[in-house]
Amino acid sequence: MKYPPFVPAHKSDEEAIKLLRKTEWSKARPYAMALLEWLQDINSPHFNPIYNYLMPYIHELGAEFCEVFRSDDNIWKTNCIYLLEKARAPLSDTNLLALLMRIATDPTPGEICDDTAQAARELAEEWNLL
């Protein structure tokens, strides 16, 4: 899939970040998953700008967070949990809440090792789910 120029194509794609900052959410929304993929690596130069861009819209990203939580990438899950912690109120997506609770209460060995389960428990407690 070819992405618009505001979705970074590589780690040195600073022009994409400049364009993203000027892009209305309605235009970026269809590419939210492509943007979330940049949250896989906290050391990526695009991590913070994309994290900050997505933050106001996290209540609209339940389906995308579900996709991340179904993946095997525990670091990505943990990074997305930290983004969800910035929400002022719990997300209402029942599938997302079920996946979060599964990670918090019945984690895989990898989710335990990578501190994903701990992050999920803390978020579930903050959202009064536990």
Tell me about this structure.
With 130 residues, the chain is an all-alpha fold. It contains 9 helices and no strands. α5 (62-69) runs parallel beside α7, α6 packs parallel to α9 (116-126) and α7 crosses α9 (116-126). It is globular and about 40 Å long. It starts with 13 loop residues before the first helix and ends with a helix. The model has no long low-confidence stretch (mean pLDDT 94).
General form: globular
- Structural class estimated from helices and strands: mainly alpha
What can be said about the biggest beta sheet? none
Radius of gyration: 15 Å
Q: Helix coverage percent of residues?
A: 55-70%
Amino- and carboxy-terminal Cα gap: 40 Å
**SSE string:** HHHHHHHHH
> Would you tell me the overall average pLDDT?
94
> What's the total number of strands?
0
Strand content: under 5%
Stretches where pLDDT falls below 50 for ≥5 residues?
A: none
Number of H/I helices: 9
Topology, pairings included?
Blueprint: H1 14-22, H2 25-28, H3 32-36, H4 47-54, H5 62-69, H6 74-85, H7 94-105, H8 109-113, H9 116-126
Short description:
Helices cover 57% and strands 0% of the residues.
Tags for this model:
0% strand, 9 helices, mainly alpha, 130 residues
